[in-house]
Specification:
The protein folds into two domains: 2-55 and 250-388, no CATH class; 62-242, no CATH class. A hairpin with a 4-residue loop joins β13 and β14 (346-348). The protein starts with a helix and ends with a helix. Helix content is 58%, strand content 20%. It has 391 residues and is α+β, with helices and mostly antiparallel strands. The protein is elongated. The chain contains 15 helices and 14 strands. A six-stranded mixed β-barrel has the order 3-4-9-6-8-7, surrounded by four helices.
């Protein structure tokens, strides 16, 4: 048995390297299909992880504390902040107030969402105030300045430095200078949001010691699930959500995109496998006479099958190995050279994980070997007499 395997391997290697053009063509097909699987999935992983990180950093804490379902605001903000200070692993927190209003400039008006926050606290929890499209950011002492989302600026034809009237839901109307425009990549936020300092919102809305939500940043966002019950107990808060719960729709979207990218990679792999199978099959047809002579000399059908299936194995080993290296280098290059995503206002790149190589190796090698089975079966069933006579 071992002798047959060694002999089959000898004939396989001799046959493969005899025609360099065919060898190069098949190998390249496997190489690029394997590298494609690694790079596409690595790039998709990077985009998804960057999207998740950017969304969390822009609009959510690792844990978010909300009012009770039948209430609009969290009462006793000062006490809750003191308790948050005492909890281990909490690095920062930022209270926010959400309200509705109308922003007007000249003859144009738009209904808007007012987001009030304390810049000094917010900057420790999220990067939303860094997502500037134009102008400069807010600080805690700004009383006559606002930030507006870039689409709202476009709709009202506002530019940095213009003054616009903001009507609060309380009935108060004040004129503010547009200090900057914000672009986060979040469609809802970017369409109709005005950001003002928390102190200013308290004055105009007549609110004191309250918040619509408190964003909490942990030392590690993966601790969110374990710290959720701790916040519920210590703050007597019934409505606490983790960052995963907040961006559940993005996680579902990400899963769909991963599936889509896998389909693209598999299509390329199938094309490569078909190429391998066809070329090996054509090789079998052209070598019928040689196969007939080998059988006449005593070679069994199983031996012929081994010869051609080993050709597929050798192609797989060489092509997949080179493809793994090429895919790894492509992902690492993308990691080292991220590009700027103007929509998300953040850098993004591919991300390498060991599973990318493991999956690509197993899938590519398996498909390549499977592609060689049919030609190998056809070769083993060649009729000796017809083959020798070239029929």
């Amino acid at each position: 048995m071992a002798h047959d395997v060694r002999a089959a391997l000898f004939y396989s290697k001799k046959d493969i390297f005899k025609n360099r053009k065919i060898f190069i063509f098949i190998t390249l097909a496997i190489v690029f299909a394997t590298a494609n699987i690694i790079f596409i999935n690595g790039f998709m992983d990077g985009m998804i992880l960057d999207l998740v990180d950017n969304t969390v950093e822009s609009s959510s804490g690792h844990l978010n504390i909300y009012p009770k379902e039948d209430e609009r605001f969290i009462d006793g903000l000062g006490i809750k902040e003191q308790r948050l200070e005492a909890i281990k692993e909490i690095e920062a927190y930022s209270p926010r107030i959400s309200a509705s209003g109308v922003l007007s400039y000249k003859e144009l008006s738009e209904p808007i969402v007012i987001l009030a926050l304390d810049p000094s606290k917010e900057n420790r929890v999220t990067k939303i105030l860094e997502k500037l499209d134009r102008g400069t950011t807010l600080n805690s002492n700004d009383r006559n300045a606002i930030l507006i989302s870039y689409r709202l600026a476009e709709d009202l034809k506002l530019v940095v430095g213009d003054e616009a009237s903001l009507a609060f839901e309380s009935g108060e109307v004040r004129v503010y200078r547009v200090k900057g425009t914000i672009r986060t990549g979040n469609q809802d936020f970017d369409s109709s949001t005005v950001i003002i300092p928390l102190n200013e919102a308290n004055r105009q809305l007549g609110i004191d010691n309250k918040a619509s939500v408190i964003l909490v940043r942990l030392s590690d966002k993966e601790l969110a699930d374990s710290y959720k019950p701790i916040l519920i107990q210590n703050l007597q808060a019934d409505n606490v959500k983790t960052w995963k719960e907040e961006i559940e729709y993005i996680l579902r979207f990400s899963a769909a995109w991963r599936s889509f990218s896998s389909i693209i990679a598999v299509v390329g792999l199938i094309a490569a496998a078909i190429s391998v199978g066809i070329i090996i099959y054509i090789n079998v047809i052209h070598k019928k006479r040689q196969i007939g002579i080998m059988k006449a000399l005593g070679a069994k059908d199983s031996f012929i099958f081994k010869v051609f299936i080993m050709e597929a194995v050798i192609f797989g080993l060489i092509g997949v190995s080179i493809g793994d290296v090429l895919g790894y280098l492509a992902v690492k290059y993308s990691e080292a050279h991220p590009f700027y995503d103007a929509v998300m206002q953040a850098m993004t790149s591919a991300r390498f994980s060991n599973y990318l190589v493991y999956n690509a190796t197993i899938i590519s090698f398996t498909v390549t070997v499977l592609a060689g089975i049919y030609p190998a079966i056809k070769a083993s069933r060649v009729d000796i007499i017809k083959a020798i006579w070239g029929e």
